[in-house]
Amino acid sequence: TREFPVLMIVGDRDEVMSVPALRKTFQLLKARDKTLVELPGATHISIIYESTPAMNAWLQKRFY
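RESULT FIELD:
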């Protein structure tokens, strides 16, 4: 079995996926390297732009 790092990002104003639902899903992950980022004020659409710094930092730490 291969294991992969997981990054999950949610905005607290997301209209599609609630923060509690994503937290529950996150807790079910068996990956050792898992990160959950919660962005205040971000919606399901705005998270695309607001999550870029968090994604870049996460990728830099693991792959560069």
